[in-house]
Amino acid sequence: MLLDNENLFCENQEITSGTLYSQNIINFGKNDVSFAPVLVQAVSDFSGLTSLSVSFETSQDASFSEPVELAKSTLYLSQLKSGSTFPITFLPKGNKGFMRLKFVVEGSETTGKITSGVVAGNGISHHEM
Description:
Mean pLDDT: 91
CATH topology: Jelly Rolls
Helix content: under 10%
CATH architecture: Sandwich
Low-confidence stretches: none
Largest sheet: 5 strands, antiparallel
Oligomer: single chain
């Protein structure tokens, strides 16, 4: 999968505890970007937590004064191995201009890293969803 720096939510971002947000916010304008393939992938094995939820959030401004959750997925510790991916494969509908990821760790403090961004392709047809 091809990732580029302009469309990365995060790269090797350490996920530790509580609620965290992606390293980057992407400005998509007010365009419908729901056709764009996306990758959310563990790039190291996780330990310590019970589960990790990832949400796509959007807002009209880069400060996320009124964030709106568009999609959410949760993986459990046994699933969070290096190379595992979250089952959100396209950007969700409802873009208001800016998007980021929200990570919520359940359980004790953890170690693990995530990389996420828009990709050139993910091998899944939009029609297969």
